[in-house]
Amino acid sequence: MKIKIILALALVSVKLQAQENPIKITVTPNSDKSVDFKYDKQTPGSYYVQVTLKNPSNASDGPVFDETIDGIQGNLFTLKPQDPQRPIGFSYTYRSAKGVYRPKLKTDFLYIFPYTKKTKFRAIESGFVGSKYLGQTTPADWKAYAFVTNKEDSIVACRKGLVTEVKDLYKTEGKAGLVSYTSHLNAIYIEHADGSIARYLGFKHGSIAVKPGQVVYPGTFLGMNSNITDVRRYSFSLMLMYIKRPFGETGDDGKELNVYGYIDPVFYDPKLGNIKLISGTEYTADTNEGIYKKELSKKELKLFGLSK
């Protein structure tokens, strides 16, 4: 009797990655009738992976595997037979999402504004697109902001992190009029040390200056903002998110909940101190030595002429 293995289509509950699942899972039968579940990851950064076994027989482990992976490849788990004389039978599905499962968040972490020093901008709270266009329920903790300027300006990283994905696919030049919504926006995803992820969305085509796998610091130039959604002004949006719950949790209505939670960040303002953004308010970008000292090593601080 041969081991029964059926590979189902990989499911992705939230489209925060390329359409093709960056996690490839393979199963390898061993001579002792155990089965290794191995992964190959195509992009840098951490991913939450859930593997669900379907109709397992003679299997030792439970039906669901929930873990974080961050290496390029490795072993997820090994399924062992209850009876070593008989093979294991099963099929499985898996799904993945950017981020760390059960992260140790620093929700009060202090960020710098994502523009260069002395840049004046207006912060405007962004609505949940899924609610307006797809009939979805807005998450209770939803937060995202547009950072609007009157001219083209430089976007910088607001915190140290690892660039995990860059999308520079869409032309932003030659657009006209006022667009209420478009999904054709260039983006950068950056993973922070506490497992949170920053999505910077709305770069001018061809202006992105970082690559996947690169470490950026507070103030690192990322690219230029664009006027793709409104020719009268330039902007980009910033959203901070994290893995809040495992795949499969449902709400009171029985529908599966989004795995992501959202962070309302605290920023440093040179006049107001540590603040949370107020929609419609104008701010001036600046920085603070204390912000650099929160996560940078001694060697990294020397690059900025600072010490612990």
Secondary structure blueprint with pairings:
Blueprint: E1 4-7, E2 23-29, E3 35-41, E4 47-57, E5 64-69, E6 73-79, E7 89-98, E8 110-111, E9 120-125, H1 129-133, E10 145-149, E11 154-156, E12 161-167, E13 186-191, E14 197-203, E15 215-216, E16 221-224, E17 234-243, E18 260-263, E19 266-269, E20 273-275, E21 281-284, H2 289-295, H3 298-303
Parallel strand pairs: 1-7, 8-19
Antiparallel strand pairs: 2-3, 3-6, 4-5, 4-7, 9-10, 9-21, 10-17, 11-16, 12-13, 12-15, 13-14, 14-17, 17-18, 19-20
What does this molecule look like?
There is one protein chain. The protein is mainly β and about 300 residues long. A hairpin with a 3-residue loop joins strand 19 (about 265-270) and strand 20. The chain is built from 3 helices and 21 strands. Residues about 1-20 have low confidence and may be disordered. It has helices at about 130-135, 290-295, 300-305; strands at about 5, 25-30, 35-40, 45-55, 65-70, 75-80, 90-100, 110, 120-125, 145-150, 155, 160-165, 185-190, 195-205, 215, 220-225, 235-245, 260-265, 265-270, 275, 280-285. The longest helix has 7 residues, at about 290-295. About 30% of the residues are buried. It starts with a strand and ends in a 5-residue tail after the last helix.
